[in-house]
Amino acid sequence: MNPIKNGLHAAIMQKGNTFLRVMNFAGPYVKDLASVLFFMLISTCFSLLVPYLSKVFIDIVFKPDAVTLKYSHASWLLPAILVLFLSYGLQIFSSGFFQWLSGKTGHRTVHDIRVMVFSKLQDLSLSYFDKHTTGGLVSRVNQDTDDVQFLIVEFLPLAIQSLLMLVGVCVFLCILSVNITVYVVLPVIALTIFGRHMLKNVHSYFNTYFAQRSRLSEFASDSLSGIRVVKAFGRENKEIATFQKHSSTYRNTGIKVMKLWGVYHPLMQFFIMSGTVFVWAFGGKMILENKMTLGSVVAYGGYCAMFFSPLLTLVGMLRNISTSLSAAQRIFNVLDESQEIRDNPNAVEIKVWEGSIEFRNVEFGYDSKKPVIKNLSFSIAPKEKIGLVGRSGAGKSTIINLLCRFYDVDKGEIVIDGLDVRLLRKQDIHKNIGVVLQETFLFNGTIYENIAYAKPEATHAEVIDASIAAFAHDFICKKPDAYDSLVGERGVNLSGGEKQRIAIARALLLDPAILILDEALSSVDSETEIKIKTALDNLTKNRTTIAIAHRISTLQGYDRIFVIENGHCIESGTPLDLFDKKGAFYKMVSMTRSKSFFNEELSGSGLLS
Predict the structure, then answer these.
(1) Residue 189 has pLDDT above 80, yes or no
(2) CB–CB of 539/366 below 8 Å?
(3) Is 550 exposed, middle or buried (0-12, 13-18, 19+ CB in 10 A)?
(4) Is 99 left (phi over 0), alpha (psi -120 to 50) or beta?
(5) Cα dihedral: 545, 548, 550, 551 (round 10)
(6) 300-311 confidence digits (pLDDT tens)
(7) Half-sphere exposure of 256 toward its Cβ, with a 13 Å CA cutoff?
(8) 8 A C-beta contact, residue 507 and residue 450
(9) What pLDDT does residue 439 have?
(10) Cβ within 8 Å of residue 135, ≥6 positions away
(11) What gap in Å lies between CA 82 and CA 343, rounded to an integer?
(12) CA distance 466 to 533
């Protein structure tokens, strides 16, 4: 078995299946497609009359009588002209209607695909995003759906119209002369053989070309998203050099594609246009032998041009067709992705969340071969305030990710209010667990929109109350447009402390049963920290709170502290108990403070009282 032929056959089958899947999206618009087909038939039928009218003009209207040399059928001229005029007019207007209808249907279908892809991405687990770049996923939503649009809006109507045209033309060609038609088919056979050879060589280049385009788009997106980091480290020249490298590879692949296309396309045109030569070669011979009239040969030549024209157009569209099918395959790769985190069909609803939490022998790793959390067990009582401390990479943020069910545990179970989180609806979990992440993210909109994002149905008063509780109201009111001030992309118009307070207000607006603060005060100055801590002391009294922190001062008043190291909870207890043990917690803090200063800090923060 030839592996190259098998590979080509598999690739063609895959693209054929992809095309059929794309067409399935047009199912809701069957009536519109029927209208498109109706106007296509009208346009095709009247366009097929035009070449035959040339036979009428030559062989009947303008053919003089052999004896009298008079035009005995001159009365046919006006009716023939009217029929020609109507044929052109109906052909043009019918074509306009079906192009409008097919375009409308195509754009609606692509809109459905685009929304479906974006919705699928929203539903996929975080593990999927760990494996794919943001730039690549944005390309799936925007660029690839635009490429598929060509397939539906332009190629499909043209392909259907071309098929109808070919069938109609073949009928007229056979009516005019079966003998010439046999010879005209020869270039088509040659074109088919040549096309198979061409596809085998061009297919791999097209795939490489599209892959390089995607990589270039991903790099540009990532680089521009991190432009502040680039400038902060003065790496502009490195980014330019890397971009030039990707762009050069993309350019060189494009040149190879165009080189092949520059060779193959003219050859295909030659095969197609040679059909016209055959018409006059064999048709002219038949005229001289009085076996065929001049009008019939002229009409035959017109139909022959109509036969090869759609073939030539479709061949010219081959590159765009391949682009669209490759884009569709990438889209279906997203749509076919399995959703790792999904609701249990028998999910249970907790009507009133108490906020108790228990980890039971939990093990988890982003890579299953490299566990981050190892046999972790602990319990948190409702309304209890817990601090998580430990070195970077110890697993603190992973604990939060598992609790919020951004990922599912590999072993063990996480229980909230007596129920495994896998038996709870994701929507309920995220509605009752408020999170302020270490990396504050704000959407490109107004301050008000960013705070209200957690609870879109919140009243204006609720949004104001949340911002006051987070000590954000004062600085917001000092902005030129107050709550209507734009935060800019990723909150670029705000300071780190301002972004952090807006994020806290957003979490507080949700009024969750469980509040998670992942280094929530890391970007806040000392003065602002005191204000926010005072507000949080009041707000955390009636909810279970888990805070990840490096500074002891942020854990003042917390009930217990868990020391996390290498995925284990190696110590837990009140701050005073851990201090007295002189264990990992004590050593971790004393590494950066002298013993006397450490004692003063503990005393000043109330941890020794």
Answers:
(1) no
(2) no
(3) middle
(4) alpha
(5) -20
(6) 777 777 777 777
(7) 17
(8) no
(9) 67
(10) 217, 218, 219, 220, 221, 222, 225
(11) 68
(12) 14
* Closest CA relative to residue 552, chosen from 495, 599, 500: 599
pLDDT at 113 over 50: yes
Q: Which of 423, 359, 425, 421 is nearest to 395 (CA)?
A: 359
Q: Is 419 helix (H, G, I), strand (E, B) or coil?
A: strand
Q: Which amino acid is at 491?
A: G
Q: From the centroid of its chain, how far is CA 467?
A: 34
Structure tokens at 42: 């009208």
- Hey, how many other C-beta atoms are within 10 angstroms of the C-beta on 48? 21
- Cβ atoms of 53 and 13 closer than 8 Å: no
For the chain, the distance separating the N- and C-terminal CA atoms, rounded to the nearest angstrom, is 83
Strand order in the sheet with 544-548: 433-436, 514-518, 544-548, 385-389, 560-565, 568-573
Farthest-apart Cα atoms in the chain, separation = 131
What average pLDDT does the structure give for the chain?
Answer: 76
Give the span between the Cα atoms of 76 and 79, in whole angstroms: 6
Helix, coil or strand: residue 86: helix
Angle of helix 294-316 relative to helix 178-225, nearest 10 degrees, comes to 20
Structure tokens at 256: 């190879």
Counting residues of the chain whose pLDDT is more than 90, the rounded percentage is 0
Most confident of 46-60, 132-146, 463-477: 463-477
Most confident of 324-333, 397-406, 586-595, 597-606: 397-406
What is the mean pLDDT of the segment spanning 83-89?
A: 81
Q: How far is residue 174's CA from residue 208's CA, in Å, rounded to a whole number?
A: 44
| 44 C-beta neighbours (distance < 10 Å), count | 24
CA distance 257 to 278: 32
Query: Does the predicted TM-score (pTM) go above 0.70?
Result: no
pLDDT digits (tens, 9 = 90+) for 199-210: 666 666 666 776
- Alpha carbon distance 287, 293 (integer Å): 6
Mean pLDDT across 490-499: 73
Q: 518, 548 in Cβ contact below 8 A? A: yes
Closest of 461, 516, 514 to residue 483, by C-alpha: 461
Gap between the Cα atoms of 218 and 42, Å rounded: 46
Residue 205 CB coordination number (10 Å): 18
Please name the residue that has the structure tokens 């919705």.
119
CA distance 529 to 550: 14
Please give the structure tokens belonging to residue 76: 């046919």
- CA–CA separation, 82 and 609 (whole Å): 105
* Number of Cβ atoms within 10 Å of the Cβ of 501: 32
User: Which one is predicted more confidently, 300 or 363?
Assistant: 363
d(CA 103, CA 342): 37
- Distance CA(384)–CA(356), nearest Å, equals 8
Q: How is residue 194 written in tokens?
A: 């040549």
